[in-house]
Design brief:
41% strand, 217 residues, 3 helices, two-stranded antiparallel ribbon, mainly beta, single chain, STM4215-like, 12 strands, 6-stranded mixed beta sheet
Length: 217
Amino acid sequence: MFTYYNNQAIRKLVIGVGSLFNNIHILQKKEDGTNRDTLVPITYAPKEKFYKRLILPSSISDQTRVEINTPAIAFEITNMQYDPARKLNKLNKTNNTTYMEVPYNFTFGVYAYTRTIEENLQIMEQILPQFTPEFIISLNFTSVNTKVDVPIVLAQTNISQEYEGDFSTRRAIISSYQFIAKSYVYNYVSGISAPAIQTYSGLFDADNGITFGITGG
């Protein structure tokens, strides 16, 4: 019944969503009064794991703490759910090579970590205006399903403060964003596949981050 194939549709979606946030900058004041332009790095990692790097002991000693460099952004998939409202006849074929795509809504959590509220608000003002409430990206999922428009909807936003120890110690300001990507998963493509015109590629590393890029086919 089943034949092995790997369209990497979900992987391409993850990289496509992460790429939306890989060019966010903030201005930080230096001691001499001038401003320093800082690119905010992005990492694929769960919120809890990323924050624990602030408080867990390192392998050096129990007194040495691991500190993440802030500002920083982390993101992850938190849920995926079939979307019957966008369902098409699954027995129909596209160009007689593959069955119709299956609609799924993928939920992403995006988390921005800073030391100050002012820095976090700078990040927030670069994200919120882009989603009214959606932003559309185009992805090449298969050799047949090229340049598919995927709406990314901003569903929820909040901001919080986390402290290590008591309130007099170091803090982290965390703004959280929930996005819903209205995407698809795809069936096996039969025959000889033509190369994709453009695909997203990236390197996944939950501890050290993601390198995003676009390669042409």
